[in-house]
Amino acid sequence: MLNTMIEKLTHTTPESRATVTQLSEQVANVIGADRDKLAEFVDAYHTFSDEHHATLSHIMNTPACDVKQTTSPKTCDSIDYEALAHTFSDPRNNPSSQELVDVANARGLHALADRYCSDMPARDGAMLIMRQYRTAQQLVTKGGNTEKAWKSYMHALQGLSMMDIDPYMYAVLSSDPNTMGRWLPALTHAVERYNNRCGDDTVRIPTTIVAQVPLPLLQLSRLDYAQLSAEDHAMVNAWARQTFHLDDVINDPHHPGIVIKTGTFSSKYDARNCIITDKKEIAETGSYLTYIAHQAAHMASPLGFYVDENGKECMVEKPSIPGVSCNNEYVVRDYIPDNDHNPTIYHGLPLRCEVRAFIDLEKDDPVMGIVPYWDKKMMVATLDENASSGDVDAFYDATIVRAHTPILTEIFEKHRHRLDTVVRGIAKELQQDTSGDRLSTSSHTPGNRWSLDIMITDTCDMENKNHHVDAVTSQLWVIDMAQAYSSAFYDTVVRSEEQRWEDTMYPWSVRYDQPARIIVDNGKLVMEESRLFLGNICA
To answer: Rounded to 5 degrees, what angle do the CA atoms 44, 50, 54 make?
Structure first.
């Protein structure tokens, strides 16, 4: 029956595709909470995909077509990592950049822009985006034209997201308060203190390594990925293998695999590119990281490309989404096994119970609200639209979301009290932090507001095939954090008049105060390399 329904989808005409949503709802109703029917549907989808050479959601490790290499990478075992990390990434080693840093430190952004923008050569991208940023900041500070300020800031972010990276821009890329290296140390210490106070490890942080990417390797993400050479791939893979201790992962037959991302972007909507369990592909982690960073840069572009029916590559306008990954970090984390055997969406992402909590660290009661992360209404609206064009993968995902989110909602409600206690406890620890890791948001923002993402695992009694275990026995994982103002669902915890785009605008700085590498293992910060602060360029 389910197989027949999937077959029916591919024979829909433009006139009948309006029924795809009803078809997905019908299948979801048939599945319900029955794991056997769910398994039948998943098998039918995989069989159909195999026969029609469609994307396989169950093969989470198959690289997307853009990642596949046409030539085998050469090995690269002799890299001077010390020189690579410091000679290229530190603008103080570049005479022209030294002058920029000196001016920025001494007199601020206004002096810098006034001195270099008037007769700036067109190739100097850093100064172009700094002029846009300066315009936006002046308008926000003085209460000027809001629309003009927004456009100027978006242009600045677009340039920072897309343009070639020189040493000065590399330094500015360290400014984003949302990048993991900026908040992970404080969060790790807070979770550790909370667990000590509770006398257990009720909350965990996945084993994580955050590393600043040497400028030449980060620059690869701003190039045409398909044109990168075998030597390029070899170099970035050798760097990643050493930096993220990947040999330990490869040589451990019981290791669950890894999850990768930039400091802020994981490409989880195509999970094949961020969840890696195959040992050969783990050895190519550098290439995957470069591709994800390239994706983020491409999202900022107002232009896209497609291949027409004649095989000709054509250009088309598309929405520009700047600022997705304006940082210089790559991240590798241990994959958290899905012991509950949840169905997957987005080509291999387990659909687990996740929540987003909002906290204000300047309030006596810091918890602003806690909401489910997977919003059924929002997700199916997009997936149904894609499915109506004959996208079988989107139809599968929409059906899984419809069938499984009621179970996730039940898990969320069962854990609501525990989540409130944990979030409040972690927030209190963050408030009391007196170390140099204390969190702070932009000076434009009201309060000190953050979002905190938590995943709930080990909720299922597999023997009885249900998710109705005691909430105390499940495991909570803190997996992400960001400024509340730039986080989805912020509108659910504040009034509309409190939502201003200016709150997402953070100070750009010539920063080297973030660590070159951070390692979190078993919930403890085991390594945080030295910091150095060179000054703020905001007037």
So the answer is: 100
- Whole-number CA gyration radius for the chain: 24
Quote the CA–CA distance of 408 and 454 in Å, as a whole number: 13
Assess contact for 357 and 422: CB atoms under 8 A.
Answer: no
Structure tokens at 452: 């905190």
pLDDT attached to residue 457: 92
Q: What's the confidence (pLDDT) of residue 538?
A: 33
User: What percent of the chain is helix, strand and coil (3-state, nearest 5)?
Assistant: 50, 15, 35
Q: What is the DSSP string of 131-142?
A: HHHHHHHHHHHH
Give the per-residue pLDDT at 506.
75
DSSP string, 508-529: -EEEE-S-SEEEEETTEEEEE-
Are 190 and 426 in contact by the 8 Å Cβ rule? The answer is yes
Pure H helices in 388-481: 392-431
CA distance 292 to 271: 11
Q: What pLDDT was estimated at residue 99?
A: 44
- In angstroms, how far is CA 194 from the centroid of its own chain? 26
What is the Cα–Cα distance from 285 to 41, expressed in whole angstroms? Answer: 32
Query: Using an 8 Å Cβ cutoff, are 520 and 333 in contact?
Result: no
Q: pLDDT for 173-227, tens place per residue?
A: 888 889 999 899 999 999 999 999 998 888 999 999 999 998 889 999 999 888 8
**How far apart, in whole angstroms, are the C-alpha atoms of residue 169 and residue 126?**
6
CA distance 460 to 342: 9
| pLDDT value of position 86 | 38
Query: Measured between alpha carbons, how far is 109 from 32 in angstroms, rounded to an integer?
Result: 58
Residue 535 region, left (φ>0) first, then alpha (ψ -120 to 50), else beta?
left
Distance between CA atoms of 450 and 367, rounded to whole angstroms?
10
Q: Are 482 and 450 in contact (CB under 8 A)?
A: yes
pLDDT at position 83: 41
Residues of the chain short of pLDDT 70, as ranges, are 1-18, 49-125, 306-307, 434-447, 461-472, 497, 502, 510-514, 528-539
